[in-house]
Amino acid sequence: MNIRSHRPVPGRAPRTRKADHDLIRIGCVATAAAVLTPCAFAQSASGQATQLQPVVVVGKTDPARGEAVAEQSLTPGGVTLVEGEELRQRNVTSLTDMLRYVPGVWAASGTTGDSSFLSSRGSNLDATNYDNNGIKLLQDGLPVTAADGSNHNRDVDPLTARYIIVARGANALTYGASTLGGAIDFISPTARDGAPNEVLVNAGSHRQRQGRVTFGNVSGNFDGLVTLEGKRSDGYREHQRQERAGLYANAGWQLGDAVTTRFYANAIDNDQQLPGVLSRDQWRADPRQAEAAAVAGNYRLNVKSWRLANKTTWKIGPDSSLTAGLSYEEQQLYHPIVFAPPYFSLLIDTRLRNIGTTLRYQHRVGSHDLLAGLNYGRTSVKGGNFGYVPDDDRTLTTRVDNHADSLELFVMDRWRVAPSWTVVFGAQAVSANREVRNVTVADGSERNPKGDYDRINPRVGVIHQLTPNVQLFANLSRLYEPPTLYELEDDVRGDGSTLNAMHGSVVEVGTRGRQNVGRNLWHWDVALYYARLRDEILSRDDPNAPGTSLSTNVGRTIHAGLEALVGASLALDSAGAHRIEPLVSLTLNRFRFKNDAVYGDNRLPAAPRYAIRGEALYRHSSGFFAGPTFDFIGRRMADFSNTYKVDAYHLWGLRAGLGAEKWEIYAEARNLADKHYVSFFSVRDVAAADAAILNPGAPRSVYVGARLRY
What we know:
The protein is mainly beta. The protein has a single domain (18-709), classed as TonB-dependent receptor, beta-barrel domain (Maltoporin, Chain A). It is built from seven helices and 35 strands. The protein has a 22-stranded antiparallel beta barrel. It has a five-stranded mixed beta sheet with strand order 1-6-7-4-5. It has a two-stranded antiparallel ribbon with strand order 2-3. It is globular, with a radius of gyration of 25 Å.
């Protein structure tokens, strides 16, 4: 049996805090209901703290997930596990698909193939959504995110992961992160941990074709695994064609019983046309059309990148270990993005180099589980901005030579103070440097904003093991996030000034667990949080140069929300051969300014007030499954002044599949009603009614796929 697991409008009265209080009341009721309903049927507690089983996503039992399960059960806050096996049972081509059932994360498919707009707990709610800051991405515990906190062009292919850990907000301390959105760690499969040789193929609407082949081998103390993949798609809009080829490999060597080392290598060549943005009238008339300037200017996002990494672990003894890692990445970006002759055109051609190191020491002694770690990263971006004519000459307008480094030191203790109580406390110390050096070719003038950012960020939390399979948790933590290079470069002041780092505090309470009730199983993961921030960095689209942005600090903001993942496996017969498995991911958001001199208590843009995604699958013990899927997404604001509203939308779909020991097939239909909706958009200060800022969502689409293990 598989269980998944700007400015306010003149005359507008200031908003009250009633909505915040309502959200808290709703969260408290939902939290209590999630705990009390299953616990009414629970057996008496044994008094021993037991690791929870994973509560997300379908997949077979896998002993290698033990560390990830422990990470979830020993964290006093929102952590979700996503199984790579489940991702192979539906059409997954981006992080949006992967994060579909992760509460608290708003992910929207972009018009750039694999790219997604990501926001976790209200991070990245501005015009610089292309850099996806606020979430720390890692592969096998090693950094993918650049040293300045940017994830520009760093989306990790979900199908390269065996499982994924999503630690929201301050719950990412074990990775050294203190960002608003937290961290996502992609754990690679290896030949040694049972990853199968396999072939994956899928095809469907908009001429999508994708194929992957994986092969590996174990020979004594050596093992290796290689995946080759290729993808082509015409996209659901004009001027949206994509071609991508990738290689993902890792090889391990066991140096005796105590030391293991593993090398990782990735290479991706991705060419992507960009269809641009539409006005509301254009979107209503034909959401498949491209922006005229995108076609005339041949907007593209072409990225060639490669990455090498190594991680070595020394098991010093039965209760202690030391892990050291090193990663290096190069990325070449060719990015025509603005074409408005004779006034302005912009082509970005840069080379990024990113180096990251990590060191982690773990030691268990008595009732203490100690962790000490160090992360260091350095990023350089060199190249230039060009004025250009498509398929013709280009002229260098600005030389770019930007640098960032970041040092994170973190310590944590998980202290079992009683059989059913664990206190978790620790701190992160961060020291970061940012330097932007832009030279205007025409007159030789230089912009050189640079700054240093230092802070210590403490955290304390508690976990109560209510029953062997039910936990209550709470934490109080500090958040801290220096600006990215993109934000410094786009400072609205346009001089040598530097932005302040965002900082604030967050309190969180919640529960997670699973409970058998007869032949039925219920599982849940619920968290309620409330964060007060100062100097949040927000950017709006520059009205004089669409496609570029202007960044600034704002005084105070509030980020609050309820995150819930609730599901069940309900038997329809005494033998359990027929089951219904509903799953619902619910996110309620309240992101707003607080008594701002310009925006009052306006809502922050980009994220919906609510997002409900789910499915209700029938499963048979033979391996067959089928059922409907649904998305209920709330209204969003497209500007800081709250004058431009993007409507709510509801989508319906179906998915089905059949699997055996060596093969699987699936079919998936999305947006069956062919509803027109907005996926994401550019953020303005005040968006005019005819502003061209919208990116349409995908129309009715059908995909089929197959997997063969050999």
